[in-house]
Specification:
The complex is a heterodimer of chains A (about 210) and B (about 475).
Chain A (H helix, E strand, L loop, with lengths): L1 H11 L3 H13 L4 H21 L5 H24 L7 E6 L7 H12 L3 E4 L6 H10 L4 E5 L7 H13 L6 E5 L5 H7 L3 E2 L3 H11 L1
Parallel strand pairs in A: 1-2, 1-3, 3-4, 4-5
Helix pairs in contact in A: 1-2, 1-3, 2-4, 3-4, 4-5, 5-9, 6-7
Chain B lengths: L9 H17 L2 E3 L2 H10 L2 E2 L5 E3 L2 H10 L4 E4 L5 E5 L5 E3 L6 E3 L6 E2 L3 H13 L6 E2 L12 H12 L4 E3 L6 H13 L2 H6 L3 E5 L6 E2 L1 H12 L4 E3 L4 E2 L7 H22 L5 E3 L4 E2 L12 H16 L5 E3 L10 H17 L3 E3 L3 E2 L4 E2 L1 H17 L12 H10 L6 H10 L12 H6 L5 H15 L7 H17 L11
Parallel strand pairs in B: 1-12, 6-18, 7-20, 9-10, 10-11, 11-13, 13-15, 14-16, 17-18
Antiparallel strand pairs in B: 1-3, 2-3, 4-5, 7-8, 19-20
Helix pairs in contact in B: 1-9, 3-9, 4-5, 5-6, 5-17, 6-17, 8-9, 9-10, 10-11, 11-12, 12-16
The chains are: A alpha/beta (about 210), B alpha/beta (about 475).
Bound molecules: cobalamin (B12).
C-alpha cells in the first residue's frame, strides 16, 4: 500500500516528523496497527538493517532511522496493546556489578529500541538480583548483560545461574556481550546467545524470541 | 636539533584552553563522590541544586595549574633514575591492562595466567628501549577481587623497573600503596623517588566516577604520580571534529588536575589520555587511526603549553596479529609520539584496540622504540667540520671502515636493531633459516625469558611483599597463591 511504503521510505531516510505524521494518517484511515507495524515500520527498519550489515550505510543512519521508528511506534503502541497484539519483545539490559562501562551497552539499547523492542535499561554497576527480579516481574523475553572487565565478567555467570533457578522452564533467555566476552565464554557461562556488536545483538535476539 | 612535529598553533591552543575552562565554569563536571564534592565547594567551586554537579572557576583552575610540577622522575627499585619526564624527553611503557593474551603456538587469544605474567615481566625487565613496566594484563588464576594488586605484586617481585598501574576498586589502593612503600623502604622515600604511576580515568563526557575520583585523591595524599587518562570518542561521546574533542579532553583533564592539586598541591601529574575517534562502521575505537594519533599529539602540545609532562596511548595497533597493519600502526604512532615529545608513551605489546597483549609484539615494538629514540637525537655534526681531512683520508684509503672517525662515531650515529629486524641478504637469510618476523620475535621472547636473572630485591623485602600479598588474598578468601617459578 502506498501510504505504508511511504512510511517505510521516510523511516529509511530518518525523517521522524514525516513518519509521525504518516503513521497518524494511516491510523485515521483505519489501517490496522499490525499492518502499519509490519508493512511500514518494520519493513523500513529491515532494509536499514540489511544496508548497515553490507556497509552501505553507517551507524548514525541507523540511529536516525531508529528514532523515526520510535516516532511511529509510540503512536500505534496503545492500539497494539488494545488489540492484544504482542510487541516485538521485552529486554532487560544492564552492565553488571562492579563495572561502570556503559557506552557499548547504551548503544545496544538504542539499537534495540530502534528495532522496536521494549528495553528496560537498568544502567551500570547493577546488582545481580536486580536483573533477575526485574526480568521476572516484567515478564521479559531476554536479559542482556554487559561487562568490560576481566574481573567483572564472571558476575554474568552468577546472574545466568540465578535466573535459571528462578525460571527453570527457561522462558527468559540471556544474551551477553562486552570486550572480554566471546562465543566460547557465552557457552561456558550457559548464556543463550552472544553478540559482538549492537547490530549483531539485534540479529541474535531475533533468533531468541 | 631535535626534530619535532606540531599540529597546533599557539593561538589555537589558547583558544582550546579558554573554551575548556568556559565549559568547566558554565556547564560543570559531574562528580559521584560526595566527600570530594564538598571539599571542592570549600576550595571555591560552585555546587548547584544537583549535589554532584561541580562548577569550577578560573581562579581554582589557575591555582591548581600553578602547583603542578613541571617535571618529575621515576626511579627503579634500587633508586636509579629511569624516567625523566620533562621537556621533550620520551620514554616508552607497555600498553596496560589487556583483557586477552595472544598465545604464540595457536595464534589465538587466551585468558592470561600467572605464568604468562611472569614471562612478561622477565622480558620487559630486559628491554632496552622500554623504560618502565606497566601492569600489562590481568592474570585470571586468582580471585577477581585482588587481580589488580596481584599484577603489581608480580611486577615488583620480578623486576626493578618502575610500574605504570591502576586499581580496579577503591579498596585495592591500600595494599598497592603498601607494596610500593615496602620496596622503597618508607612513605617519605617513596615520595622522594616515585616507583610507580597510577592511572585515573574520568568518564567522558565530563564526569568522574566514585572509584576513579577516589583513586585520584588517594594517590595525591601519598604524592604518588598520576596520569589522567580520559577517553573522549570523536563523533560519539565527544565532538566529531578533532578540535572539538581536544576541547573536551582539555576540560576533563583540567578537572582532574584541580581534584589532585586541591588534595595535595605538588602531586606529580602526567597530562595523559586515551582518546580515539569512533569508527561508526564497526562500533569501535581505533587506536591505530591517524586521527587518534593526531589528537594524542595535539593534546600533548596543550599539556606542554600548560607546563605539565604528558602521556598518551599511542604506538599500539588494532590488528589481531603481529602483521603489517600492526607494524604500520605501531611505527607510525611511535614516530609521531617521539617527534611530538610525548613524555610517557604507552602502547608497546598491545593490539586489538587495548584488548590483547602479545609478548612477540612487545619485543618487536621494542625495536620500533629503539629506532625512534635514535631518530629524535637528530642530525648533529660530530667532528664533521672542517671536512677536508676526512675526505682526504677517504680518497686515499678508498673507504672509511676502519677510520678513527668511523670508530669513534659508529655506535652512536648508527642504531643497531636486534635480531628481529632482518637486514641480511636474501641468500644469507635463507641460509639462516628463512625465518619470518613472527618466528624471530618468538625466538627473542624465548631468549629473554631464559636469560632473565634478577636479584633486585633483598630477601627481607621479598618476604614482606609476599607476606602482604598472601594477607590480601586471604582477606578475599583465597588461601594460597598460584605457584611461581623463580
Ligand atoms: C571507554 C573506556 C572506559 C571509560 C568508560 C566510560 C563509560 N561510560 O562506559 C572509563 C574511563 C570510565 C573506563 C574506566 C575503567 N576502565 Co575502561 N575502557 C574503556 C575503553 C577504552 C573503551 C570501551 C568502549 O566504550 N568501547 C566502545 C563500545 C561501543 O564498545 P564495547 O564497549 O566493546 O561494546 C560493544 C560490544 O562489546 C557489544 N556489547 C557490549 N555490551 C553488550 C551487551 C550485550 C547484551 C550485547 C549483546 C552486546 C554488548 O556491543 C557494543 C556495541 O558495539 C576500553 C578499551 C576498549 N577499546 O575496549 C577500556 C577497558 C575496557 N577499560 C579497562 C580498565 C582497566 C578500566 C579501569 C579499571 C581503569 C582504571 N584503573 O580506572 C576503569 C574501570 C572502572 C570500573 N570499575 O568499571 C580495561 C579492561 C582491562 C581488563 N582486563 O579488565 C580496558 C580493556 C582498557 C585497557 N586495556 O586498559 N574505561
Amino acid at each position: 500500500m502506498e501510504l505504508l511504503n511511504q512510511i517505510s521510505e521516510y523511516l529509511q531516510q530518518g525523517d521522524d516528523e514525516k513518519v509521525f505524521e504518516l503513521t497518524g494518517i494511516a491510523i485515521k484511515e483505519g489501517i490496522s496497527p499490525k499492518e502499519i507495524l509490519d508493512d511500514g515500520l518494520l519493513a523500513g527498519i529491515g532494509i536499514i538493517g540489511k544496508q548497515f550489515k553490507n556497509h552501505e550505510i553507517f551507524l548514525p543512519d541507523v540511529l536516525l532511522a531508529a528514532k523515526a521508528m520510535q516516532a511511529g511506534l509510540n503512536q500505534i503502541k496503545p492500539l497494539l496493546e488494545r488489540d492484544k497484539i504482542p510487541g516485538m519483545g521485552k529486554i532487560v539490559l544492564g552492565t553488571v556489578k562492579g563495572d561502570v562501562h556503559d557506552i557499548g551497552k547504551n548503544l545496544v539499547g538504542i539499537m534495540l529500541k530502534g528495532a522496536g523492542y521494549d528495553v528496560i535499561d537498568l544502567g551500570k554497576d547493577v546488582a545481580s538480583e536486580q536483573f533477575v527480579e526485574t526480568a521476572i516481574i516484567e515478564k521479559a523475553n531476554v536479559v542482556g548483560l554487559s561487562a568490560l572487565l576481566t574481573t567483572t565478567m564472571p558476575v554474568m555467570k552468577e546472574i545466568i545461574s540465578m535466573l535459571k533457578e528462578k525460571d527453570p522452564e527457561g522462558n527468559i533467555k540471556t544474551i551477553i556481550g562486552g570486550a572480554p566476552v566471546t562465543k566460547n565464554i557465552a557457552d561456558e557461562y550457559g548464556a543463550d546467545a552472544y553478540a559482538f556488536d549492537a547490530a549483531n545483538a539485534i540479529d541474535q535476539i531475533k533468533l531468541l524470541i | 636539533m631535535r626534530p619535532t612535529v606540531k599540529f597546533l598553533s599557539k593561538s589555537l591552543i589558547e583558544q582550546i584552553i579558554s573554551e575548556a575552562k568556559d565549559i568547566l565554569c558554565k556547564l560543570g563536571v559531574k562528580i559521584e563522590n560526595p566527600e570530594l564534592v564538598s571539599k571542592l565547594a570549600d576550595y571555591g567551586a560552585r555546587i548547584e541544586n544537583d549535589a554532584s554537579k561541580v562548577f569550577f572557576t578560573n581562579e581554582i583552575i589557575e591555582r591548581a595549574l600553578k602547583s603542578v610540577p613541571k617535571s618529575f622522575q621515576l626511579f627503579d627499585s634500587s633508586g636509579n633514575e629511569t624516567n625523566n619526564f620533562s621537556g621533550n624527553n620520551i620514554h616508552y611503557t607497555p600498553g596496560s591492562s589487556a583483557i586477552n593474551f595472544l598465545d604464540y603456538e595457536s595464534q589465538d587469544i587466551k585468558q592470561p595466567l600467572t605464568k604468562d605474567y611472569i614471562r612478561y615481566v622477565k622480558i620487559v625487565d630486559q628491554l632496552k628501549y622500554i623504560a618502565s613496566q606497566s601492569t600489562a594484563f590481568i592474570p585470571t588464576d586468582v580471585q577477581d577481587k585482588f587481580a589488580d594488586s596481584y599484577r603489581l605484586f608480580l611486577s615488583l617481585l620480578y623486576s626493578g623497573k618502575p610500574v605504570v598501574t591502576g586499581t580496579f576498586t577503591a579498596e585495592s589502593f591500600e595494599v598497592m600503596k603498601n607494596f610500593l612503600v615496602t620496596v622503597r623502604g618508607s612513605k617519605e622515600a617513596l615520595k622522594e623517588k616515585p616507583l610507580s604511576v597510577f592511572t585515573a580515568c574520568p568518564t567522558s563526557p565530563l564526569k568522574w566516577g566514585d572509584v576513579s575520583s577516589q583513586n585520584l585523591t588517594d594517590c595525591a595524599r601519598y604524592s604518588i604520580p598520576v596520569e589522567i587518562v580520559c577517553m573522549p570518542m570523536a563523533g560519539f561521546i565527544s565532538p566529531v571534529t578533532l578540535t572539538g574533542t581536544l576541547i573536551q579532553h582539555t576540560a576533563e583533564t583540567l578537572s582532574g588536575i584541580v581534584i589532585s592539586q586541591m588534595t595535595n598541591p605538588g602531586t606529580p601529574i602526567l597530562y595523559g589520555g586515551s582518546p580515539a575517534i569512533f569508527d561508526i562502521r564497526y562500533e569501535t575505537t581505533p587506536m591505530g587511526a591517524v586521527e587518534t594519533m593526531m589528537i594524542d599529539c595535539a593534546y600533548n602540545e596543550i599539556g606542554k603549553y600548560l607546563g605539565i609532562p604528558t602521556q598518551a596511548y599511542i604506538a599500539l595497533s588494532d590488528s589481531k596479529f603481529l602483521d603489517a597493519q600492526a607494524g604500520l600502526e605501531d611505527g607510525m604512532g611511535a614516530t609521531l609520539a617521539a617527534l611530538s615529545g610525548i613524555n610517557n608513551i604507552s602502547g608497546p605489546g598491545m593490539m586489538d584496540f587495548e584488548n590483547c597483549f602479545s609478548l612477540e609484539k612487545l619485543v618487536f615494538d621494542n625495536e620500533v622504540c629503539g629506532k625512534t629514540l635514535r631518530m629524535i637525537k637528530g642530525i648533529e655534526p660530530k667532528d664533521d667540520f672542517p671536512a677536508i681531512s676526512l675526505f682526504t683520508e677517504l680518497l686515499e684509503e678508498e673507504h672509511l671502515l676502519i677510520s678513527k672517525h668511523t670508530r669513534k662515531h659508529l655506535r652512536t650515529e648508527h642504531h643497531f636493531p636486534g635480531s628481529i629486524i632482518n637486514r641480511a641478504s636474501r641468500s644469507r637469510w635463507i641460509e639462516e633459516g628463512s625465518t619470518t618476523l613472527l618466528q624471530r620475535a618468538h625466538s627473542e621472547v624465548e631468549r629473554l625469558v631464559s636469560e632473565y636473572s634478577s636479584s633486585h630485591l633483598t630477601d627481607e623485602v621479598r618476604k614482606e611483599l609476599i607476606n602482604l600479598m598472601e594477607q590480601e588474598a586471604k582477606t578475599h578468601g583465597q588461601g594460597s597463591l598460584p605457584e611461581r617459578e623463580v
